[in-house]
Specification:
Blueprint lengths: L5 E10 L7 E11 L4 E5 L6 H9 L6 E6 L2 E2 L5 H4 L3 E4 L13 H9 L13 H12 L18 H13 L5 E5 L7 H17 L4 E4 L3 H6 L3 E6 L2 E7 H5 L3 H12 L6 H4 L3
C-alpha cells in the first residue's frame, strides 16, 4: 500500500510540438494526494487544470514524468486500463451516461464495470432496492424513476446519476472535471452538495477542476492554483478554510505579473 493515493511526478506535456501551434500544457507538475484528500484545482483558461485530470485519466500519453495511483505506476497504461482505478464526472451532463437506457440499467453497468458481463446482466431485485436507497439520499425524486430513460432527465439529474455511477465501485480516485459548469447556479450548488456527500460517505480521494473561486474555496480540504502549466499555490487545512477570493486573486497576480481578467473565475454563484 502506497503512502499516497495519487502521485503526479514532474509531469510534462507539449501539444503540437515543433509546429507553429506548439503549446506547453504541463510544465513539471508535481502533486501528491493522500487517501481521503479532496483537492480543488483552480486557474485561468489554459492553466493546465483539465490537462492535469486528462493526464491522470490517460486520455493521452505524457511526454515526461510519472503517474502513480495507489502504488501502481499507470504512466504507460492506456485510458481503458486505468478505468478500474478511476471514477469520472465530465463537464457535459450527456457524457457520463447512456441516454437510451434507464436509470437502473446505467447504474447496473457501472456496478459491473471490470467484470465479465456475459449475456445475463439484467438488473436484480436486490440491486434495484440498493439503487433506490442511494438515490433517495439525493433528494431529487429519482428513486421513483428507476425505469425512466436517462435522456429524459435534466442536466442536474444526469450529473447526479453520473456521480453515483462514478462512486459505486469506490474508485481509488474520483475526477470531477468542471462537472457543474454547464448547470444553472441553483442546480450547480445542489450537485456540489451531492459531490461532498458522496466523497465523504465513501471516503474517496478526489480532484475537482473548477473555474469558480468561491466553489474552490468552499469545497474540499485542499486547493491548488495553476498557471501556464505549473502549480503556483497549494494550500490545505486551516489555511484553505480561511481563504477569500481576494487572496486567490492576489496569488494569481503575484505569479502572473498581471491583473486577473477571467470572468468565469470571478463568478459569485
Amino acid at each position: 500500500m502506497s503512502e499516497y493515493m495519487l502521485e503526479i511526478q514532474d509531469v510534462h506535456k507539449v501539444f503540437n510540438a515543433g509546429t507553429i501551434n506548439e503549446k506547453t500544457a504541463l510544465d513539471g507538475v508535481d502533486i501528491r494526494l493522500s487517501k481521503g484528500d479532496f483537492v480543488t484545482i483552480i486557474g485561468g483558461n489554459g492553466a493546465g487544470k483539465s490537462t492535469t485530470l486528462n493526464a491522470v485519466a490517460g486520455v493521452w500519453q505524457i511526454d515526461h514524468g510519472k503517474i502513480i495511483i495507489n502504488g501502481t505506476d499507470v504512466t504507460k497504461l492506456p485510458e481503458h486500463k486505468r478505468a478500474p482505478y478511476l471514477g469520472r464526472v465530465f463537464q457535459d451532463p450527456m457524457t457520463g451516461t447512456a441516454a437510451t437506457m434507464s436509470i437502473d440499467e446505467n447504474l447496473a453497468i457501472a456496478a459491473r464495470r471490470g467484470r465479465h458481463r456475459g449475456l445475463k446482466w439484467g438488473v436484480t431485485k436486490a440491486e434495484r432496492a440498493a439503487y433506490r436507497e442511494k438515490l433517495a439520499q439525493f433528494g431529487l425524486g429519482l428513486e421513483d424513476r428507476l425505469t425512466t430513460k436517462v435522456g429524459l432527465l435534466s442536466g442536474g439529474q444526469r450529473q447526479a446519476i453520473t456521480l453515483l455511477m462514478a462512486s459505486l465501485m469506490k474508485p481509488d480516485l474520483l475526477l470531477l472535471d468542471e462537472h457543474t459548469a454547464a448547470l444553472d447556479p441553483k442546480t450547480a450548488a445542489k450537485v456540489l452538495e451531492l459531490s461532498d456527500k458522496v466523497i465523504a460517505e465513501n471516503d474517496l480521494t478526489a480532484m475537482m477542476v473548477t473555474h469558480n473561486m468561491k466553489d474552490a474555496i468552499a469545497h474540499g480540504n485542499r486547493l491548488i492554483m495553476m498557471h501556464e502549466g505549473r502549480v503556483i499555490y497549494d494550500v490545505a487545512g486551516e489555511g484553505k478554510k480561511n481563504l477569500h477570493v481576494s487572496d486567490l486573486l492576489r496569488k494569481f497576480e503575484e505569479a502572473s505579473g498581471g491583473e486577473f481578467a477571467n470572468d468565469r473565475m470571478m463568478l459569485a454563484n
